[in-house]
Amino acid sequence: MTIAPAELGAAPAFSIPQRGKLHDIFRRHPTAMAGAILLSLLILMAVFAPWLGTVDPQALAPIRRLRPPSSTYWFGTDMLGRDVYSRVIYGSRVSLIIGISVALFSAAVGITLGLLTGFVRLADAILMRIMDGLMSIPSVLLAIALMALTRASMGNVIFAITVAEVPRVTRLVRGVVLTLREQPFVEAAIVQGTFIAASAMITEAALSFIGAGTPPNIPSWGNIMAEGRSLFQVAYYIILFPGICLSLAVLSINLIGDGLRDALDPRLARRM
Q: Would the pLDDT of 2 be above 50?
């Protein structure tokens, strides 16, 4: 039996938050504003990496290996003499691209599947069992399994993490459609997308840390920490600085997601 929109009642309006509404959200939620400012700084850092006093992040200089942080090498050098500061700055590009890409792809696929399962009972019976099966596997383990079947590349990492995150968006959108909550499903997916972006950054770092993520020649935060783990006691800074940047990126996105959730969830809005 197919559940038609007319049988369910008036479908909730769905619209992406407008510019004025977003401005009001950030004005009323200081934590979201703080997250937006911090994330903007990280994005600017990634975009203008060549002009921030960096050098070639892959340039080898064994004679300068394991230099501690100083006025010459702000974040020190690694075991191959590469400038850690430059590698951390350029590594922000990898994490941000993967986080944003996974969030966009997961939201697009999840909304499509969520609407299909919410309105078509047969599709719900089949697709949601698949989604349940995928959700029963920890996202990191599922991503590792998918990466084991492909070669290491940024595109494959994005694909593997997206597959692991799609079921959560699908279930969220399906639940909104079936229960006809006041919250539009597009806005619900946007909020979920922020948390997925943060989760994707952590997952990418975990994959790279164990050697199943981006290729070693790409300076990502996970790769930098993986290379420095065996030297942590003598060169802690190799792990410290990329770890701080990863934490700040995840924190900023989570702050934005919390602010959007509080503002767009009508149940929370009525309490404010």
A: no
